[in-house]
Specification:
Layout: H1 2-16, H2 27-32, E1 38-47, E2 59-68, E3 74-82, E4 85-95, E5 103-105, E6 108-114, E7 123-130, E8 135-142, H3 148-161, E9 166-168
Antiparallel strand pairs: 1-2, 1-8, 1-9, 2-3, 3-4, 4-5, 5-6, 6-7, 7-8
Length: about 180
């Protein structure tokens, strides 16, 4: 019910602000469609301020796996190549049907968007917001690490339309860490 109300409200706002992304994906669709589950390459992150994305500096590359956890939540496990070592991190996105499309990841609120907004049928965008800490960021993931230049150009253009002008884009100069060891 809340998802339908938010969808209508959001559609109205899009008329006023056409550079907004499309309606967020529902957590239920993320859980049930293979299109969104599986391996994703981290392409970049954007925010209004440097503090919101400071933890992404020093990441050379990252590959993540998004899958359904046993409690109807989404689990993202990533292998990051950061500061000459491979690190494995995990995030759990709680899907509450009453709040759908809003998901919770710890104390942060998250929304997911189809990559068509940045002209990429094989991409996924995830926003994370921590209202208490004043953090807001948009992360871009793609199914492949190829064709990054055009994708980044489109991503940055959409972000600048929203007056988001801080970016961290991993250079991908080092070998990708093995995700197999991460899961």
């Amino acid at each position: 019910m809340l998802g339908h109300i938010l969808g209508l409200f959001y559609a109205g706002i899009q008329v006023i602000l056409p550079c907004l992304p499309p309606t967020p994906l529902s957590g239920q669709s993320l859980l049930t469609h293979d299109k969104y589950l599986g391996d994703w390459y981290f392409v970049g992150v954007a925010a209004f301020d440097k503090e919101s994305i400071a933890t992404y500096k020093g990441i050379d590359n990252s590959v993540a796996k998004l899958h359904k956890a046993s409690d109807s939540s989404l689990l993202m496990t990533a292998a990051l190549h950061q500061e000459d070592e491979c690190k494995v991190l995990s995030w759990t996105y709680k899907v509450n049907p009453a709040l759908d499309p809003i998901m919770k990841e710890g104390e942060q609120l998250a929304l997911a968007f189809d990559g068509k907004w940045v002209h990429c049928d094989t991409c996924l965008l995830i926003t994370k917001t921590d209202l208490e800490k004043g953090i807001f960021r948009i992360m871009l993931f793609a199914r492949s690490q190829e064709s990054r230049e055009e994708l980044l150009k489109s991503f940055k253009s959409k972000m600048e339309c929203l007056e988001i002008d801080e970016f961290v884009v991993p250079p991908q100069e080092k070998e990708f860490c093995k995700l197999d060891a991460a899961t």
